[in-house]
Design brief:
Chains A, B: This is Transcriptional regulator. Chains A, B: Residues 27-70 form the HTH marR-type domain. Chains A, B: One of its GO terms (molecular function) is DNA-binding transcription factor activity. Chains A, B: Belongs to the ROK (NagC/XylR) family. Two copies of one chain form a homodimer. By secondary structure, chain A is α/β, with parallel strands linked by helices. The first copy, chain A, has three domains: 2-88, Arc Repressor Mutant, subunit A (Orthogonal Bundle), CATH 1.10.10; 92-209 and 391-404, Nucleotidyltransferase, domain 5; 219-384, Nucleotidyltransferase, domain 5. Chain A has 14 helices and 16 strands. Chain A has a five-stranded mixed sheet with strand order 6-5-4-7-11. In chain A, strands 14-13-12-15-16 form a five-stranded mixed sheet, sandwiched between helices. Mean pLDDT of chain A is 87; it is low at 1-16 and 412-419.
Chain lengths: 419, 419
């Protein structure tokens, strides 16, 4: 924060540097990312840069095709017409991947967020082990890179979402219980396997899904928002004042193993009564379809669809099971609401598939348990990204990084222009 | 944030305004608040303001006695000597108050944080009702104002800490269960009663205690820190990236009524198995001193001291009770750690009084339950502010506000100097 103050202030001073140029280009791009289409005057006002500086920066960004002219806006009846620009970069690709319990998901876009590739392939990650999983992930990534190149966009960065604890700075998956991965240097290994010279970033799936929701989801722009994954495991991503909460080590938002029932069933993690044992898909399947012999659940989406069919047909046992899970979802939601006071809790995965049956129970329980009561105005809402929120968020993470370091997508040697 | 970028950037531009002057003065004061003693060159570098601008601002702040010269620093062996300045304002007072279940606490300081008044008076708030409580609070405040004036500092703002949900923007206590206050317009009523023309601000006690800890406590400066009050009620204040988390409505950090045991005892709030029923002082007293007939607990500090004496003497029943409460403290701490990933959980009130017996159990349970395990590196530590953290934080809140609006403590009509 202080950092930006310094750079922007120097922008108007006589001194200049490649770093300053990078910062100012980034200020302009960031403003356009957050505001769709803006005039140069708007940008100058919002960033605190001089009008002339903004014109120079925009000229260079236009030349590099990172922004485009969007036409003429008339401001007020007698205002002068202003030419607006918007984020472009159709040749700059951002590739997002997610590897989860039973699938690998891909979301490729250009710098402006235009979708180029979207794909999901079934894959049994835990059974495959880390080495085979990495090979499969690399192949899917390579195919996506080729598809994006055919669409005219060369990936300038790659993001991967993983359901587990991630050391974000090193790109290492510390522990992903539902994949059985421990201390896996995913960024380094994927980078080597792909032979790409672009940055590879790794983060938790719920964090990235929260980023996707905040960027373009059902509650986009809501400054205080929590995202809950609804898979075999349950994770949380927290947006506070429009920013992803990471905490001291990047381990924030670990909602799955909240101890909600000290006398409850044993969880996969070895503890008892974790929230995941109440609201994870396995818990629902156990209650809704007790005749199903197979555990663990390896096909969450199919199973959720099957339960949705049963619910639509009025299956009483399924309705009771969903009511029970819904109440536990509301209890966990009340914990989240009491601690973070978000305006919206966006639920994804199977929670979203079954939202029409699940959320009324969850909302009622949330309102009963949250201390501030109705004053907290917190509502559950279903994501409409299906199981694709995390890979979409992984691509958003890449775009954000490119916008923070624009010279990496401009030219290899920063020009020492007088910004 | 963008806001600051704008202002600081304009500082170097030819335009000027009273608002800009305010912002630049504030930049300098904020830097000095966070860094004790700094040279003009340091300030220029950190704020992005021009050297000449900083010299002008510092000259004005010196003239107004809001900063003072602290002597000469030699930077390196051959560096030029630099004259440093520090926050001063010995004539500008900040008054912090806390009203809780059985006491009113006062902390008066000057702008630089030097303590001028510290006092606590016993008072049975719930039995007294809002009107009598307000009269008593006003009297205590008036006495503190007089004492501060005698010490040469006229209070320029007043902060009040309350154990409950506070609508911070309006200064209204929405709901304080342990005081039995509902929708009480505390700021307006106290302001009227005192007849002072300075701002009166109200916030939750745990939030303000967290602020005090982050400003000057045992873990001062730790960017990710959680504070837990240990009184009849239990509240939480959350610091993320050095800033107080408020959430969408200011209702964040409500840890006392986390549902930790669905089959547990009925809580004062009407729900069952709230965390407060496990770790609030009443729970400990019930287990440690079951022969005591009186409930509710109206004298937390005396009771905690009594239990500490018993523990020191090796009272077995008390030791068992403290172990049980310690485990529940660790369980709640694990919820906080899983969601926020703080580096430190500072405990206050009776938790701090009994820390030597309580925290080993709490720490062990935290480490057992937190998902990231030892990697999360979260430790419990006892506050050394006793029961005075919240009133100290209330004074810090006032100081922060004065530093954000420095012209209110400088002169009634902002001078249009060329900053």
């Amino acid at each position: 924060m202080e950092h930006h103050v310094t750079r922007a202030a120097e922008a108007a001073a006589p001194t200049s540097s490649p770093m300053l140029r990078q910062t100012n280009l980034s200020l302009v791009l960031r403003h356009l990312r957050d505001h769709v289409s803006r005039s140069r005057a708007d940008i100058a006002e919002a960033t605190g840069l001089h009008r002339a500086t903004v014109s120079n920066l925009v000229a260079e960004l236009l030349e590099r095709r990172l922004v485009r002219e969007t036409g003429i806006e008339h401001v007020g009846a007698i205002g002068r017409p202003r030419r607006s620009v918007a984020l472009h970069g159709a040749h700059v690709g951002a590739l997002g991947l997610e590897i989860n319990v039973d699938y690998i998901s891909v979301h490729g876009s250009d710098l402006s967020g235009r979708v180029l590739v979207e794909r999901r392939v079934g894959f049994d990650t835990m059974a495959s082990g880390p080495d085979r999983s990495l090979r499969r992930l690399s192949r899917v990534a390579r195919e996506a890179v080729e598809a994006m190149k055919r669409a005219g966009a060369v990936p300038a960065g790659l993001g991967v979402a993983v359901p587990g604890l991630v050391d974000v700075a090193r790109g290492v998956v510390t522990f992903a219980p539902n994949l059985d991965w421990h201390d896996l240097p995913l960024a380094a290994r994927l980078s080597t396997a792909l032979g790409l010279s672009v940055p590879v970033m790794v983060d938790n799936d719920a964090n990235l899904a929260a980023l996707a929701e905040h960027t373009a989801g059902v509650a986009a722009g809501t400054p205080h928002l929590v995202y809950l994954t609804g898979e075999v495991g349950v994770g949380g991503g927290i947006i506070i004042d429009g920013k992803l909460l990471r905490g001291a080590d990047g381990f924030s938002g670990e909602v799955g193993h909240l101890p909600v029932d000290p006398g409850g069933a044993r969880c996969g993690c070895g503890r008892h009564g974790c929230w995941e044992t109440k609201v994870g898909l396995a818990a629902l399947v156990r209650m809704a379809m007790p005749e199903q012999p197979y555990q663990p659940v390896t096909d969450p989406e199919e199973r959720a669809t099957e339960i949705a069919r049963g619910l639509a047909a009025g299956d009483r046992r399924m309705l009771a099971a969903v009511a029970e899970v819904g109440r536990w979802l509301g209890l966990g939601g009340s914990i989240v609401a009491n601690l973070f006071n978000p305006r919206v809790i966006v639920v994804g995965g199977y929670f979203a598939t079954l939202a029409e049956w699940l959320l009324p129970h969850a909302q009622a329980e949330l309102e009963r348990l949250v201390v501030a009561g109705p004053a907290a105005q917190c509502r559950f809402t279903a994501s409409n990204f299906g199981f694709g929120a995390a890979s979409r968020g992984a691509a958003s993470m890449v775009i954000n990084r490119l916008i923070d370091h624009p010279t990496t997508i401009m030219d290899p040697i920063p020009r020492l222009a007088a910004y």
